[in-house]
Structure formats: structure tokens, C-alpha cells
Amino acid sequence: MKVLLIYPPFCPPTVRPYSISYLKGFVLANLEVDVKCLDLNAKYHKKMFPKFYERLERVDGRDANQYGKLLGEFLEEARPTYSINNKKVVCGEKPDLADEMLDIVLREKPDLVAMSLVYSSQCFHAMVLADELAKIGIKCVAGGPAVNPQLAAKCPCLKNEVELYEQIAKIAGEQSRKNTTSELDCWVVPDYSDYDDPDYFAAETVIPLKSSSTCFYKQCAFCTHFRKAPYLEVDIELIKEAIVRSGAKNFFFIDDTIPRERLLALASALKPLKVKWWAQLRPTRDMLGTFDELAAAGLKAICWGVESGSQRILDLMEKGTKVEDISEVLRQSHAAGIKNTTYIMFGFPTETKGEFMETLNFLKSNSESLFIVSTTVFGLQKGSKAYENPSQYGITEITEEKRELLDERLTYKTASGMTKEEAKEMRQRFIKSIRKLNKAPIAFKDYKEQVLLLQ
What we know:
alpha/beta; single chain; about 450 residues; about 40% helix
């Protein structure tokens, strides 16, 4: 039996997908079947935008200006095509290259196709592929955090890898099981061996890794990233094995954050491997004094969940951070030679224009320590603390707007502070000032892990 794990198209591919790489490792550890990863997102973009891949061969990936300019131009040309193709799917038409993508799938002669949806925009191509596979009688399932009811109407949508195991065993037969359901090995080495390097829009190979099952902190009021799932850490030996097997030299940890002691343990394990790596962290006081050790172990870039320069807003968000500590964390990290990206969220409920300016002034006063400033405007999400306890965060009314294929669009009203529209206007008003803080082209805001490749 052959299982084909698919990652549907959604955005320019600069890194290998983690989800299907992990699933391949899981299937191999627990079942006697043939399994392969197919990154249709990478295949789609290589076919759709060949001129950018040709230009990439002539660009110095260590040069921020050259590389960033090309990344930005690629995204600028690609972005409008996503909207056009999504509308085609909504209208019952096929998106660009749908038949070509189906041909790539069929050449693998799968008995089961399993699609992994991590981002909601992947549902458009996934819907079409599920329809086409059903027409020719190939079994198709889907899973991941971005599956929706519309896709579930076309193919079975699975909750987790255990359900995938059961689906495969049902088709392949009982003799395919290496382990019973109660004995499943879920702590496995992701397998990145199936991907073709030329399909990726990156100057060098960059591999995603995961060090834990979820966020250990789980308190941020705006976040929905597995807040109710238990925090479990991946064995560091498995992480080392994944690094060695991949043969790559650049890695980024996709964890929302990593606790201090765990981070130092990872650094100790990674240092002898002489790799470069990237992580997302909270700028807490306990990080002070660690950066020389982390930098010596290959930590080259950090994305910090700063969010705001207003202490009242940080407290309301339940970030567990202090403005004065954040400044010192950024300063020490920069002094150690680490490139700092700061995540900033404007427009959290009840934020005033004055508090917006506090954040802007905070960024300006710490400009020497910053490499990239990545800003967004707060959007309410189901499952977050702010959604489940709206009055606690000054939200007075929530409205749900149905959409054709995507989840409902949530809008809200607050008792005080800026509206979402006002927050957007404020960001646009000061966007030039914000962009002047960047030490590299703005494209690295969207391709943050690519900072690893710069000199």
C-alpha cells in the first residue's frame, strides 16, 4: 500500500513543511506501508513563477538587500494570484495548475492521499483536489488545524495522527500494524528526505523543527495555539537525529516559545553540530545573561513576542512581561550578535491612541537593538481567552459573518479605546516611521527564518 502525504498550495515556499514530515516519521514508526511526502505548495510555485527561481540562482543569499528585494518582488507578484484563484474555487472553477497538480499526485500511484492543512488558505486547493480524487476513486482524507466543515463534506477529516494510523491500517490490513493503538510511538524523527531542493525559494535549505507539543506558557489572551493541549517536550536526542539525518545547516524552531532552561539544554546539544538556528521567545527577565552562550551555540536570530510598549496593554494581554525588561533583553541579545525581530500587535481591545504611541516610542528608543519590526492589528479568534471571556478584555459585542469556504469572520465592539479600523489607520499613518526601524528589506517580515542566511 502507498500513502501520499500532501501539503496543499498557499504561499511562496521558503522552507520544507513540518507537518507531513512529522507524519511520515510517525507512519514509518508504526506501520509497514510505503509512505511519501509531496509538497504541492512548492511544486505549484515552481511551475507558476519560474522567472523568480531563475533569478534566485544569480542572487547572493547572504546579502540582505539583494535577497530581500527578490523575496519582496516574488511575494508582490504572487499575492494577487491567490485571491483570484480562491475566488475561482468559490465559484466552482478550478484554480491555476489544478490539473498539473493532480497529475503530479497520480504519478505517485497512491492508495491513500492524506492532506495536511496548517493554514486556512490551503483549503481552496484542497477542496478541488479532494473532488478530483473522488471522481477517480482514490481514497482521500485531511487533517490539521485549518480543516473546515466544507472540506469535511468532501472527505473524512481526521483529528490527529492516531486516526490517520487507523485509516491506513483499515485499508492496508491488520498485518500492516507494527504497534497496537495503545502502543503507538508518537515521538519520532521527522523525515525530510522526499523534497526536491530546487522547488524551494531559498538561498540555502532551511528545516523546521519542533521541540514541544505546545506552548508551555499558554496565557496570552489573543492566542489559540493549542492552549488546552498538554505541554510535552520532544526528546533532545530525537531533535539531534532529525538535524543529522536532514544534512542541512539551518534550522528554525516553530514552537511559540521555549522556556529558558529548555533553550539552554537545546543550545548545549546543538553546539557540537555547528548549525545555525532561529527561535521564537518571550522577552522575560530570566533570559538576561544567556545570550552569549546561546549565540556561541549557533542561535543567530530570535523573533520576540513583544506585542506592545504599553505596560497596561501587556498586562491586559497577560504577556507576563515588563517593558523595562524587554528593552534590556533586546539590548543584550543584540550585543551578543543575534538579530532581533519584534512582533508587535496594535489595536488590542481598549488600546488608546496614546498607548499606540507608547509602543511606537518604545520601538524608536530601542531601534539600535532591532533588526526587523513585524506589526499586525489584533484580530479576535475563536478559542482565545479574549473570545471566551470578552467582558474581561473590554469587548462588548461579537458578530460572526459567514464565509463561503473559510471560517467565520469575527468582528467586535469595545467599551473604550480604538476600533480595529482606527488601529489600522494609526498603523498606516506611521508605517514609514516603523519601516525606517528595519535594518533589512521589509520582505523579511514575512520570511523571518530567512534571516538565518544573511551575513
